[in-house]
Design goal:
alpha/beta
């Protein structure tokens, strides 16, 4: 709640802050308590001179349904650039995030037949200056929301906003608990941390974000860290077959691994597109929930294969039969490693429970023309998840936005209420600065996220994926590779915004 300008029962700013002796207080509304919204809200609520309310449409105990697999939820890879960024402005929150996760230290790739492709320690190779973190999605959400505290107003959807003649913003809110609609007036800035389908972005920019679809799809599932039949790993196997992230490719998928009468043999999209790529998964161990005693350790599996450009994921490729074929090498079952056998069995058995999406992008936009609305995270720059940079850059955005907005407020502390127009001008300038500092960077990260999916297609003229996988190995290991991949990864993981601690620990 405000520290100077109080908020009345109707949510409107009281006039006590408008007396000439009192430092002006800015009122900021955030739509959405996701990664960008909740992390920014935590910083703003600690700042004297800021009154922040974060509206979250979901109930306190929930995460969005499409992230939630039937039983156990979803996993999240928070990459080094986010961990480094949050460590600069809020080391306590970084440590709490690390405390609910496991370190993500290496990039390791091999094939379903056990061919080693590459292994890189991110920090030892100079690709990053700190490690990433692997966590349960719902735990990460719960943690950042707890850290934001009581400035979150739950089950309240920001339905509309209007910029009044005096420049203040009035919100229309839908309240899920009693089905009512209300308005709240007097905000100086509205921040959209609403995620990929942000209605605030649509209103602020006057059109729905145009989406470009690519030619690669994603699938994901989180399963218990146990053998495919649910029995625990034998004691001598410790935590099982998997730990830090590994990528596993099938570089020789073939129609010959389908049953003779299978309809998939006649499915042109499956035969000519899906099977002309190297289906791959990333798999990593995720710790037991720190918030729900009944949720144990999990394995997070996400994967990709090629689909026809700009089209839906072919229905035939989403079946257990298709998964079985995609993850069987040309040499058949005898060549499968135990890890690959586990993956194939798990995907085949759980084909109906996989979460599906396609590579897609929206143009980067951080604000409306007047600086009344700031977009962060997926609302500003939704892109494909191949490098795990969605939540990661949302966290970067939140840290940068907190720095710039709080900086603007602190620069005006000597002002009095009659100078309020100067405070607002600083705030609008800060909004512009956030876009200036972060637009090129997230545009770049979006483009390399798309590029990271390209190597799963066979090289022109090749009959299998060995050539493209070998080329990817060189890209990850050779600084002189023509793709410049290692330089690009350094830019992504090391060139995060350089920021200072925002609030000293009390
Ligand atoms: C299954 C899955 C796995 C992923 N894995 C990774 C990964 O490993 N690493 C990674 O970096 N990224 C990953 N991503 C991408 C990542 O989830 C997003 O980029 C990230 O969540 C975006 O954060 P955000 O702050 O923009 O918004 P979100 O986290 O999407 O949060 C938006 C919030 O706003 C709320 N909301 C929406 N509209 C309104 C409204 N009008 N009023 C009030 N509240 C509203 C929603 O309920 C939600 O809580 C993954 C995505 C998915 C779906």
């Amino acid at each position: 709640m405000g520290k100077g300008a109080g908020k009345g029962a109707d949510g409107n700013t009281t006039t006590q802050a408008m007396t000439a002796e009192v430092t002006p207080v800015v009122r900021i509304a955030i739509a959405g308590a996701g990664f960008s919204g909740a992390i920014l809200a935590r910083q703003l609520k600690k700042e004297p001179g800021v009154d922040v309310v974060c509206y979250e449409k979901m109930a306190q105990a929930s995460v969005r349904k499409h992230w939630t697999q039937p039983v156990t939820g979803a996993g999240l890879n928070i990459n080094p650039n986010a961990m480094a960024c949050i460590g600069q402005v809020d080391p306590e929150l970084r440590d709490r995030l690390r405390g609910i996760g496991l370190p993500r230290e290496t990039v390791r790739a091999s094939t379903v037949t056990g061919r080693h492709i590459y292994e890189q320690d991110m920090v030892a190779e100079g690709l990053a200056d700190t490690h990433g973190c692997r966590v349960r999605w719902d735990d990460a959400n719960t943690l950042i929301r707890q850290a934001a505290g009581d400035c979150i107003r739950w089950e309240t959807t920001v339905e509309d906003h209007v910029v009044e003649k005096d420049g203040s913003i009035t919100l229309t809110l839908a309240n899920a608990d009693d089905g009512s609609t209300s308005t709240e007036a007097g905000f100086d800035l509205l921040i959209a941390g609403e995620g990929r389908y942000s209605n605030t972005r649509t209103r602020a920019l006057g059109s729905v974000a145009p989406t470009s679809y690519g030619d690669v799809c994603n699938f994901r599932i989180l399963v218990p860290n146990a053998q495919p039949d649910g029995t625990p790993w034998p004691a001598e196997m410790g935590t099982g077959l998997f730990d830090d992230l590994q990528l596993i490719y099938n570089e020789t998928p073939t129609v010959d691994n389908l049953a003779p009468g299978s309809a998939l043999r006649e499915d042109h999209e499956f035969v000519n597109t899906v099977l002309r790529s190297t289906p791959r998964v990333g798999i990593m161990r995720i710790p037991a929930s720190k918030f729900k005693a009944e949720v144990g350790e999990s394995l997070y599996i996400f994967g990709n294969f090629a689909i026809p450009d700009q089209k839906d994921v072919p229905a035939g490729s989403k079946t257990g039969e298709a998964m079985h074929c995609m993850f069987t090498p040309a040499g058949g079952d005898a060549e499968l490693t135990p890890e690959a056998r586990f993956i194939r069995e798990t995907l085949t058995k759980n084909a109906d429970s996989l979460h599906w999406s396609r590579f897609q992008d929206i143009p980067v936009e951080f604000s409306d023309a007047t600086g009344h609305v700031l977009m962060l995270g997926d609302a500003a720059h939704g892109f494909c998840p191949s490098l795990g940079q969605g939540a990661t850059t949302s966290i970067e955005d939140a840290c940068l936005a907190a720095t710039e907005l709080i900086g603007a407020v602190r620069r005006t502390t000597s002002l009095v209420a009659s100078d309020r127009h100067l405070v607002i001008a600083e705030l609008r300038a800060a909004v512009a600065k956030i876009g200036e500092r972060q637009s090129d960077r997230v545009d770049f990260i979006g483009s390399i996220s798309t590029e990271a999916g390209e190597h799963i297609r066979f090289l022109p003229g090749d009959l299998d994926g060995r050539g493209s996988v070998d080329d990817d190995a060189l890209a990850w290991t050779d600084d002189n590779h023509k793709s410049g991949w290692r330089h690009k990864m350094r830019r992504a993981w090391l060139e995060y915004p350089k920021l200072d601690l925002i609030h000293k620990a009390v």
